[in-house]
Amino acid sequence: MSTLGAAVADARARFTAAGLPDAAIEARLLLGGLLGLSSTEVFTGGDRVLTGDEIASIDKAVARRLKREPVHRILGSREFHGMDLLISRETLEPRPDTEILVESLLPRVGQIVAAKGVARLLDLGTGTGAIILALLKEIPHASGIGSDISRDALNTAMQNAKRLGLAERFDAVESQWFDAITGRFDIIVSNPPYIRSDVIPALEPEVRDFDPPAALDGGPDGLDAYRAIAAGAGDFLEKDGMIGVEIGFDQKDTVSAIFHDAGFMLAQARRDYGDNDRVLLFTKSKP
Q1: How is domain 87-284 classified at the CATH fold level?
Q2: Residues with pLDDT less than 50, the chain
Q3: What is the model's pTM?
């Protein structure tokens, strides 16, 4: 007979022995997710007797984590801005710092809806749909497109939109940046790949081996995506629209210069929870 408490303790010990950080937290999170239990229920339900199938499922999941597969990839979903989002092989796992991009844009989307009655959004490289779906969830009169080069990502984003009841206001489009996009948008947003190609081999295994390379690799200097977005955005952004991008911790000046040269001005910069530069908002320069 094996109990939940014993299984959590065993997972924690194995994670600790493997040198994984936050072993106790990850053990509770992983087993709770597998069994559909909250952290509190895991903590208070230590006497629960596990079935054979549950034990087998836990053993398999623990083995995957010991190979450095992230907990949320094992579970298949992650919470982001109050939403439970499915993640898949070709989607980046949403990170808490990206919520700052959402929070930075929400006031502007609200102002646009107040002035026009509606707002149209474009999320370039949408992945799970995390950014645009969070904005649509908060602003009922907004609608938009999530674009990506990955069909797997687009399918995942559409599944998330349906699960959240947002499918009627969301469309998924396969596109390399603006190639297959038409129309104009009040907000263009992106968390693009921004890691230098030569840095990727040195990343933690959880990122290097499990996040999709296309969502990480920003080219030789990490700035390829920003150049593409800045070069094309002027043809798709409404006159009073706004562009929001996530950036690497050391890219504020270089990304700002790219957008400035393309006819945009920096409207706001925000730092992340680690006090690193993380979000830049741009508007069209006045003629």
Answers
A1: Rossmann fold (3.40.50)
A2: none
A3: 0.95
